[in-house]
């Protein structure tokens, strides 16, 4: 399936289902070749950003914000063809959403406070000198800014 089709599908699905699809797609595109821990960390950054409201109010808004995550950085014609990696990304995304639905003190955080990440083999962001939370596989996770959940 092509990325453009997945993003279109997310635009017509109910919000919670769309968010699960967008998170799955992001985990797949950003970290399918990483460990389960690394994939969970990518999902955690996206969920933390959603909670902050700075990049949007939904996971889909966050991961499609301009130049933030793979869904806007790769070609819309990119095929997501590794079915095993897709199935793993679905499991990880759903597990991450369940974990993130817990009260903050009960969540299992892998990269506490991380607001950004980068794969330095392919990116050299301007904020790469920020506080490094962890390096997992090919990704380094950073606390570039303090993200606080928006007020309800």
From TrEMBL:
<dbReference type="InterPro" id="IPR011105">
    <property type="entry name" value="Cell_wall_hydrolase_SleB"/>
</dbReference>
<protein>
    <submittedName>
        <fullName>Spore germination cell wall hydrolase CwlJ-like protein</fullName>
    </submittedName>
</protein>
<feature type="domain" description="Cell wall hydrolase SleB">
    <location>
        <begin position="34"/>
        <end position="142"/>
    </location>
</feature>
<dbReference type="Pfam" id="PF07486">
    <property type="entry name" value="Hydrolase_2"/>
</dbReference>
<dbReference type="InterPro" id="IPR042047">
    <property type="entry name" value="SleB_dom1"/>
</dbReference>
